[in-house]
Amino acid sequence: AYNFCAGPAALPEPVLRQARDEMLDWRGTGMSVMEMSHRSDEFVEIAETAEKDLRELAGISDDYAVLFMQGGASGQFATVPLNLLGENTRVDYVNTGIWSKKAIAEAKRYATVNVAASSEDRGFTTVPDQSEWNTSADAAYLHYTPNETIGGLEYDFVPDSGRVPLVADMSSNILSRPVDVNRFGLIYAGAQKNIGPSGLVVVIIRKDLLGRARPETPTMMNYQVMADNASMYNTPATYSWYLAGLVFKWLKEQGGVDAMEALNYRKSKKLYDYIDASGFYANPIEPRFRSWMNVPFTLADDSLNGAFLKGADERGLLNLEGHRSVGGMRASIYNAMPEAGVDALIDYMAGFVKEHG
Ligand code: PLP
């Protein structure tokens, strides 16, 4: 079966097999990693290796701290302003879809949010040109969502934020292609697409931005506390952290982020090319900003949606239903989706047109 779910998403099959094989006895310890003390030598090594591999994959220098936190990406919607506002009250956000809007709504609880640009009036089908952004030179940070998971909209550039720290919610496209981390003040990503199990959230923060948390910041949300305690102030999500480490190892074996870029480009191009040529399926996003990770599409006749999904399910093409807020279909094709999965989907789509088109 191929799982096209937007998240939690498919994990690489070799990772799941390894997890199964060692579930009762990890390397002769007679225990699962899940049962191991987070203070044990074994787990500390697992944790450190995962961080080292992530640093290598993403090109993260020593100027940045890497934190393995909890509460998902949504927790970061509050954690970011609480930690980065400092004495400031003003923050800039770009609104390109449902996840941007959620981040904005949460930030408004703590800060004066300036929506520097929005494509809402264009149905979130494009990214506003940066020359039109109304950013503030004195903002505490500029936040954007490089890949809108629900709309299927992805930036093809890193915004220029001048001296203002750039903050990105990379939940649904981290490690899918190379990114210059040095351009960012902070990157966060919920793990459940390209990293591992849900609940875990990876935070990459430039070290000079640590130590600015508002006094009322909950201890568990304080980046400085997390950094000082190697993300083990409390009991971390040990097993999720372990699986994330296995995914990083798998990524390195595949050839790293450069290899993922080539694969993800090929997979998404194939699918969009087929959609555009079909005359039956459609995707509304301006081609330049079509997501490589999440491909929403509609059928020429909505009343066929049920039949499409049923037939897909029968062929092991799972979870293709679009988000409840937009309808239609959505194929999420993260790093772990093999090219054969996209080929099988296109095959099925073409057969469906023959039968119903
Ligand atoms: N941001 C983006 C871009 C997402 O795709 C998601 C979830 O799918 C989230 C934030 C929320 O993540 P979580 O469910 O981990 O809070």
Automatic annotation (TrEMBL):
Enzyme class, UniProt record, top EC level: transferase
Keyword flag Calcium: no
Subcellular locations according to the entry: Cytoplasm
Domain Aminotransferase class V: 2-345
Recorded catalytic activity of this chain's protein: 4-(phosphooxy)-L-threonine + 2-oxoglutarate = (R)-3-hydroxy-2-oxo-4-phosphooxybutanoate + L-glutamate; O-phospho-L-serine + 2-oxoglutarate = 3-phosphooxypyruvate + L-glutamate
Needed cofactors: pyridoxal 5'-phosphate
Keyword Phosphoprotein (UniProt): no
List of residues binding L-glutamate: 39
BP term (GO), one: L-serine biosynthetic process
Pathway(s) it belongs to: Amino-acid biosynthesis; L-serine biosynthesis; L-serine from 3-phospho-D-glycerate: step 2/3; Cofactor biosynthesis; pyridoxine 5'-phosphate biosynthesis; pyridoxine 5'-phosphate from D-erythrose 4-phosphate: step 3/5
One GO CC annotation: cytoplasm
Binding site for pyridoxal 5'-phosphate: 73-74, 99, 149, 169, 192, 234-235
EC number(s) from the headed UniProt entry: 2.6.1.52
Key words, A-Z: Amino-acid biosynthesis, Aminotransferase, Cytoplasm, Pyridoxal phosphate, Pyridoxine biosynthesis, Serine biosynthesis, Transferase
Alphabetical list of InterPro entries matching this protein: Aminotrans_V_dom (IPR000192), Pser_aminoTfrase (IPR022278), PyrdxlP-dep_Trfase (IPR015424), PyrdxlP-dep_Trfase_major (IPR015421), PyrdxlP-dep_Trfase_small (IPR015422)
Function: Catalyzes the reversible conversion of 3-phosphohydroxypyruvate to phosphoserine and of 3-hydroxy-2-oxo-4-phosphonooxybutanoate to phosphohydroxythreonine.
Known partners and oligomeric status: Homodimer.
Listed name of the protein: Phosphoserine aminotransferase
Chain's gene name: serC
